[in-house]
């Protein structure tokens, strides 16, 4: 079986057509690369992969600026909901931190968008780029590489084996990456002792473009504004040992429990829909590059969703690769991986630190952490710096 080469001096195989894989394929193709994008799920016309569900995603201004200013998606702003205010507090502890876009002289501190809306933008772009070939319904079978190319053997829905080769391969195939396992890259895995519930919630009053994050002993509970004035994305953490209890609760009792955790910064939750439950895990690979293969997105970094950094960190992966891909200088390939790994480690360390500190079982520890938040609130220069960091700058 002969490998089918991609007919371009700059060629890439991208494994996984989720948000980061699709975005990376689009970005490389717009720079003249020949790209083959592989998706495990068999897709029909105008059907997105199931990973593009109704979940709301948080985007930093830095991510949105890059997506809209790089001629990638100039009209994306039309699909976004702006976050004008962010309120952070800790349950049963005095003090809070409030951030306001107006104080920063900016239109928004962040944005939200549904995953399926983002997918529609991405897949429309994929369909109009002639140097991208999307192959769906594939099972990956084997992988090998030399100094010049990577060869991937796969099986299609007709059980036919195909072989593709390219200069580089980017694995965006998720937290349980097949490519990472095929390369025998070990990863540190941390299982959190709480689970995550996400839902679309209706509030008793308008959200006024406000996001709320409230730390509790069972993990953070948060709301993010959506397009409708009283509708928000709800994120609610609960103890793993309470899973069966939470699953058995009637809607009224679950809403009561959620309101008890949230406080009353934006009124009460009065209805919840589209409920999903997830286990929470952190996956940290020992390395993200091997030969001409690089891990990106959740394949390279899976972290707790507190502060909504996962997608934005993946977008920074794509940004860095896009900068490198303009010249595709082989001498800068490993430094690229080192730089991305450093960003991953710093972000994951900060994310885990937030969860550990503000969800600590000791009220004393949580109170000390909250006192630090109050200090930031009372120090405008420090508050401005923290706010800009949260925005991705």
Structure explained in plain terms:
This protein has a domain at 4-55 and 116-188 and 282-352: FAD/NAD(P)-binding domain (3-Layer(bba) Sandwich), CATH 3.50.50. The chain is 33% helix and 31% strand. The chain contains eleven helices and 20 strands. The strands form four sheets. It has a seven-stranded mixed beta sheet with strand order 7-6-15-16-17-14-18, with helices on both faces. The protein has a six-stranded mixed beta sheet with strand order 9-3-2-13-20-19. The protein has a four-stranded mixed beta sheet with strand order 1-12-11-10. The protein is globular, with a radius of gyration of 22 Å. The N and C termini lie far apart (49 Å).
Strand content: 25-35%
Largest sheet: 7 strands, mixed
Shape, principal axes of CA atoms: globular
CATH class of one domain: Alpha Beta
Low-confidence stretches: 1-8
Radius of gyration: 22 Å
Residues in helices, as a percent range: 25-40%
CATH homologous superfamily of one domain? FAD/NAD(P)-binding domain
The CATH topology of one domain comes to FAD/NAD(P)-binding domain
How many angstroms does the end-to-end distance come to?
A: 49 Å
Q: Note the total helix count.
A: 11
**Class per helix and strand makeup:** alpha/beta
């Amino acid at each position: 079986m002969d490998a089918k080469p991609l007919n371009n001096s700059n060629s890439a195989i991208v494994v996984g057509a989720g948000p980061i894989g699709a975005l990376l394929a689009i970005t490389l193709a717009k720079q003249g690369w020949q790209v083959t994008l592989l998706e495990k799920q068999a897709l029909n016309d105008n059907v997105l992969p199931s990973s593009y569900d109704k979940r709301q995603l948080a985007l930093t201004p830095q991510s949105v600026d890059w997506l809209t200013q790089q001629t990638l998606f100039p009209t994306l702003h039309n699909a976004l909901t702006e976050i004008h205010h962010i309120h952070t507090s800790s349950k049963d502890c005095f003090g809070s931190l409030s951030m306001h876009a107006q104080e920063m002289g900016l239109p928004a501190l962040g944005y939200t968008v549904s995953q399926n809306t983002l997918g529609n933008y991405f897949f429309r772009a994929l369909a109009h780029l002639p140097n991208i070939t999307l192959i769906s319904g594939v099972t990956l079978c084997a992988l090998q590489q030399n100094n010049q190319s990577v060869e991937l053997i796969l099986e299609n829905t007709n059980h036919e084996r195909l072989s593709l080769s390219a200069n580089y391969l980017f694995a965006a195939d998720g937290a349980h990456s097949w490519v990472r396992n095929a390369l025998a890259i070990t990863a540190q895995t941390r299982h959190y002792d709480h689970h995550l519930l996400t839902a679309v919630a209706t509030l008793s009053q308008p959200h006024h473009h406000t996001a709320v994050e409230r730390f509790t002993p069972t993990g953070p509970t948060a709301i993010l504004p959506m397009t409708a004035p009283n509708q928000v994305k709800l994120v609610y953490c609960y103890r793993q040992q309470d899973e069966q209890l939470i699953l058995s609760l009637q809607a009224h009792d679950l809403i009561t429990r959620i309101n008890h955790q949230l406080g009353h910064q934006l009124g009460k939750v009065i209805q919840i829909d589209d409920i999903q439950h997830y286990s929470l895990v952190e996956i940290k690979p020992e390395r993200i590059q091997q030969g001409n293969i690089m891990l990106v997105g959740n394949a390279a970094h899976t972290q707790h969703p507190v502060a909504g950094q996962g997608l934005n960190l993946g977008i920074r992966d794509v940004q860095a690769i896009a900068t490198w891909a303009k010249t595709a200088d082989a001498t800068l390939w490993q430094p690229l991986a080192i730089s991305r790994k450093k960003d991953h480690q710093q972000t994951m360390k900060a994310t885990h630190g937030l969860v550990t500190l503000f969800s600590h079982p000791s009220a004393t520890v949580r109170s000390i952490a909250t006192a630090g938040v109050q200090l930031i609130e009372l120090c405008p220069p420090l508050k401005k710096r923290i706010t800009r960091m949260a925005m991705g700058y």
